[in-house]
Specification:
The protein is an all-alpha fold. The protein has helices spanning 2-14, 30-63, 69-97, 107-118, 126-137. It has a single domain (2-137), classed as Butyryl-CoA Dehydrogenase, subunit A, domain 3 (Up-down Bundle), CATH 1.20.140. Helices cover 68% and strands 0% of the residues. The model has no long low-confidence stretch (mean pLDDT 93).
Length: 148
């Protein structure tokens, strides 16, 4: 979803549309360029964490073993970072897109709604995932041992 938002906003930005009377071309606005770079970095950060989690799962499966509690907790930490990163990226891209991003005719508003809902799904629950990872880092018992 963050990649879809990226594609939509990048296409719009490359058109060089104006931003009110301040800039005749959005590409000339430093703040918008910084937001674009930050959004791309957030997407890449999220992808890094998801790929690291997938590698850990694949390795355990290849070795025929069940992930240990600490490994599962780190997976949940990776999931939390990815979820927050993707939601942050879309938020930045919405800033770049402006109010037109929320028009029902704009596909970006659907991406925004979908990522906000998906980011709060049980498996992506940032608050619970961060809690579980923190407990693991402290050597404490898992709060949700049957979850993931």
């Amino acid at each position: 979803m963050a990649e879809a938002a990226w594609d939509l906003v990048l296409d719009s930005t490359k058109s060089g549309r104006p931003i009110t009377s301040a800039y005749s071309d959005i590409r000339e606005a430093p703040g918008y360029r910084f937001a674009l770079a930050d959004a791309r970095t957030a997407i890449d950060t999220g992808r890094f964490h998801l790929l690291r989690a997938a590698d850990a799962i694949d390795s355990a499966a290849h070795e025929g073993r069940i992930l240990e509690a600490g490994e599962r907790a780190r997976l949940r930490g990776d999931t939390a970072v990815a979820t927050l990163s993707f939601r942050n990226a879309v938020d930045l891209l919405l800033d770049i897109g402006g109010t037109r991003s929320f028009a029902l005719s704009n596909p970006l508003q659907r991406v925004w709604r979908d990522i906000e809902v998906a980011g709060r799904h049980g498996l992506n629950n940032v608050l619970m995932n961060r809690e579980e990872y923190a407990l693991s880092l402290l050597g404490m018992d898992q709060a949700f041992p049957d979850y993931l």
